[in-house]
Structure formats: C-alpha cells, structure tokens
Write a structure and sequence with these properties.
With about 240 residues, the protein is α/β, with parallel strands linked by helices. The protein has 7 helices and 7 strands, in the order βαββαβαβαβαααβ. The chain has one domain: 3-Layer(aba) Sandwich (Rossmann fold), CATH 3.40.50.720.
Length: about 240
C-alpha cells in the first residue's frame, strides 16, 4: 500500500502543487474540494466543505485507500475562504461560514482520519503569515488562520505518544489564483507586493508544496510553526 495524503482544496494553488509533489513521490492523493485536481491519478472527492454532510464521501475515499494495506496517512488542511471584511462590522453568519471551511472542516477531518493514523502519519495545517499578525480588511481570514495555529498546537499535545506528528506552515505572498484575484490586474500592485519579500519576488506554490512534503516526512518538526515567506519585509 502506498502512503496516502488527503489535501483539501487541491484543485488549484498550493493544494494543486502539493498534490503534484506527493504524486511525484509515489503517494496516493485524495483531493477534497468543489472542483477537480488537474494532476493525473488523483482521487477527487467533490464536496463543498461549507455545507455540512460531506463526511461520508470523504470517509469512503479514506477507507478505499486503507483497504489496500497499512501505510502513512497525511492530511493537509489547505482549503480556505478569503473574504474582505471588517472585525467591527461583519455579521455573525458571515463569520460562521468562514469558520465552517477554515476551522470546523479541519476538526472534522482529523476525527475521520484518526483511526487510520499509523506510525509516521501527520496532520498538517496551512496557516499564513496572518496566523500570527493582522492587516486591515480581512478580519475573518486573520481570525481563522490564528485559530489553525492554536488547533495545531492542541493537536500536537493530544497526539502525544502516538508517533503521529503535526505542523503548521505559514506561507507569505504566494503566486496563487487567490492572491491574483485579491490583487487585481494592476502590474504595479503586483510588483509592490513582490517587493514585500527580501527576495523581491512572490513565492511559488511549488515551494510551499516542498515545505509541506518535508513536514509530512519529518517527525522532528512536530508542533512547529514554519514561516515560509522568503523573509517578509515588515511595514
């Protein structure tokens, strides 16, 4: 049985790059997202994590992999809603919707995966540089990315003695569809954001995928919060 990885939101961006990297390394890859992953030989479970009731489809995909024999399981909590909102004006239903995808879904997936977590398995969280600071206008994203780091730290403690590990990867400005949608089409805006790293460029999704693969295969990183941001320039 090959090792298997379940990645939420592997239809694009960091998730797609992670699917490609794990497939290259011989892992069985399950994409849990509304859209399909374009990487060949990926198992696609097409659900909307914002709508409760998706659990049976994910359980079935995990069980199919487990039935092929014991192997490591990695879960990458990557899917996220990124909304423009304000901490003093957004309504509760708006925050609940973002929480459902960004925080509740990882909690549920951990519970579903728990019986299949053999020695060397891992639960990985894709947080953000905004998981430990804030900027104006994205309050729900900032709040939930902070929460993911807290969940990772709780996961680390609750897995003590199991030989299963966890980590949180916090990407900086990564050249994904989500970032491009946020920045718009003005080249000057894109150049300004690229200038906010000490390398003067955006991070590639493949670079973050490499960090995630390292975390999945390196238990000594258990409990780590890893800022993968090319040395972000603080302003």
């Amino acid at each position: 049985m090959p090792d298997q990885v379940l990645i939420t939101g592997a239809s694009r961006g960091i998730g797609r790059a992670a699917a490609e990297r794990f497939r290259k390394e011989g892992w069985r890859v399950i994409n849990v997202a509304r859209g399909p992953c374009p990487v060949p030989d990926v198992v696609n479970v097409r659900v909307d994590l914002a709508v409760p009731g998706w659990e049976p489809a994910v359980e079935a995909a995990l069980r199919d992999g487990a039935n092929q024999g014991p192997g490591r399981l990695c879960v990458v909590h990557n899917a996220a809603l990124y909304e423009h909102d304000d901490a003093l004006s957004m309504d509760a239903d708006h925050l609940r919707r973002v929480l459902e995808v960004n925080v509740v879904a990882p909690l549920v997936l951990n519970r579903l995966a728990r019986p299949l977590l053999t020695d060397g398995s891992s639960l990985l969280y894709v947080s953000s540089t905004l998981g430990e600071k804030a900027v104006k206008g994205v309050a729900s994203y900032v709040t939930t990315k902070h929460a993911l780091i807290g969940m990772m730290r709780a996961t680390c403690q609750d897995l003590a003695g199991t030989r299963v590990h966890t980590a949180a990867v916090c990407p900086g400005f990564t050249d994904t569809e989500m970032l491009r949608e946020h920045l718009g089409t003005d080249p000057a805006v894109r150049a300004s954001v690229a200038g906010m790293t000490t390398f003067g460029r955006l991070i590639t999704p493949e670079e973050i995928a490499g960090v995630l693969y390292t975390c999945a295969t390196t238990p000594v990183l258990n409990g780590a919060v890893i800022h993968a941001n090319l040395g972000q320039v603080e302003r």
